[in-house]
Amino acid sequence: MSQECELLEKCGFFKKYNEINSLACRGFIANYCKGPKIDQCKRKEYRNRYGVPPSDDMMPDGQMYSG
Ligand code: SF4
User: Fold this and answer.
1) What is the pLDDT of residues 18-43, one digit of tens each?
2) 54 CB contacts (<8 Å, ≥6 apart)?
3) For a pocket test of ligand 1, which of 16, 44, 45, 46 has the largest count of ligand atoms closer than 8 A to its C-beta?
4) Assessment of whether the complete model's pTM goes beyond 0.70
């Protein structure tokens, strides 16, 4: 299965954090953006619910990035 979130290229979280913490970002991509949790992404859920993207600091699991 090679599914990929259509938002990956413009996802604020990855744009902001990929350079700072690429290891964690890669983990999220593997799990959410291209992985088994692709339909459980809280960022996507937020965007669908409110019509705007969430804070760049919100991680795919819904927690705020801190550090
Ligand atoms: S974090 Fe969520 S919205 Fe962003 S690219 Fe990954 S799956 Fe898509």
Assistant:
1) 999 999 999 999 999 999 999 999 99
2) 12, 42, 43, 46, 47
3) 44
4) yes
